[in-house]
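Lab notebook, page 48
Experiment: co-folding of the full assembly
Goal: obtain a model of how the components sit together before planning crosslinking
Operator: M.T.
Materials (sequences as entered):
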Amino acid sequence: MKKFKMFLLLFVLMSAVFTGSNSLYAASKSITITGSTTVLPIAQMAAEAFMDIHEDISVSVRGGGSGVGIAALIDGRADIADASRPIKTKEIMLAREKGVDPYANVVARDGLAIVVHPDVPVDSISIEDLKKIFTGEIENWKDLGGPDKAIVTISRDYSSGTFEVFKELVLEGAKVSDGALMLASNKAVATTVSITPYSIGYIGLGYLSDEVKALKVDGVVASEETVRKGEYKLARPLFMYTNGEPSGIIKTFMDFVFSPQGQGIAMEVGFVPVK
Amino acid sequence: MRRFWYLVCLKLLTVAPASLIGGETKVSMVLWNRYTAEVSGGEINESAFSLERGYFRVEPMFNDKIKGRFNIDLFSDDAALDGAGLKLKYAYLDFSEVLPIPESKISVGLIKHYFGTVYDWEYISIEKALEDKEGVASSTDYGFALYGYIPNGYGEYAISVLNGEGYKKIGDDLDKEPEIAANLRVILIPGITIGGSVLYENDGNDRFAYAGVGHFSKGPFELWCEYLVSDMSDVTSNGFMVMPIIKLKGMTGIDVDLRGRFDMWDGNADVDDDGYMTITAGINWNIVRNEKGAPTVFLQLEGERTIYQDNALSDIDKLMAQIQWKFSNVF
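Observation: model returned without errors.
Model output:
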């Protein structure tokens, strides 16, 4: 009986601490956003425009990758996790264990554009050939009707959501060839492809520029229109995960992202609006 | 039943050749440098530095459906040649989606022992999980398990068939009958996890063990609870563990966790004065975290007092300081 009383006392004490201190931990007038570098341009521009309207709320935005963002949401280090892939069941379970209930806000849609150095004289590629290039089965442009030049393969790093989507849609789980350069952001891939002759890589639509040449995939050009119509096969939703349905200042921010101005920002940085 | 396992084996054999495709491999190390001081009855029993654990871990991902984990433990050991011992801790393959159950996998080899808290014990306190400490269930064992997540993150489950004697025993130390274990954890409300485990083995006598687990988390506060019963022949042992944790970083900016722990164990419920209780208090200072927020260098300080019911036994006071460091790379 003594054991039971001691156990009960401990439990009651902990419960009291739990309920009493919650407000101490939660209250603040700032929002932290962390995660996918694909979603980063939307988050950054939306944060700047949002802070112009709501001067009393500060929004800090960081990249790091989808996995990093979701881990930060789970640990309570971020209020919003940017992700270019859906959250995994294991991550949902870890989150729920820690009292976090991940809620998916689809803020835009994106296409994974296949880009090459502007001098590569190839205009279109199939998903099957893409898989062969990135797994090292095809190593020379001549196998694709191009010049007799070695292909320089540039990929995103393993922890990025963009890589996970590419792995699912193109590689079907196969390993990227050991010779591929693994880079940490969309911008790094775009820049490296633009300055490396005979290179190929993949980036979010928002990172397309005149510096690189986008290939048609299975005969379809990567664009907002083809992604919206569902014609472009390498397409994906982009997420901002929150702890539960947004409320308070997080809701104010998410409402802004879904507003005509926020969706205009998504379009401005090259993605497809969802509203 | 035989037909079922035949089909499972057939499926494993058809999935296995895909491993030849090859995938990335994670290599990591986890090291624990520890100082321990133990005092009992006014005498110093121990005052020593040691490498308590040195995990060298290789985790190959052959493809999306087959992953492996191989883990050896290198540690200070005065009974071993030149003061260092070696233990095999994990050596298993995970096969996903072998059975038509979403988010499930089959682990084969020297696998996690899905029982109580021992299989995901993260050593928030330096001391082991209660079932490990009391020899009720080892952290790993040889066998196979069906493990999976309940859809939408509502929990996890496992059913295992194991040697039953734990990873340290093999050959003549084993009985002929396997252990069968089942584990379930459910999270109906975010922040509240409840679960239970049961294991059965017959080594001439029936042996049952049961564990009830609760984990509560809200903001910077966490609480682990476990109630454990071991029923072997005519001896029933039972006890519990309660471990509250407070993370101070959100309140103070300092990445320090305060923690307590209370263990109570009765070795034989029919015998008086054979139990003990241990009260532990400690801090974890997370010095370096990786990009995903997991601590990679952290210092643990812990003081514990064990009080025996038997008045003839002196209380034991233990002070431990441990620096734990981890590093990894993906190839």
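Interpretation: Chain B has one domain: 24-330.
Next step: discuss with group before ordering constructs.
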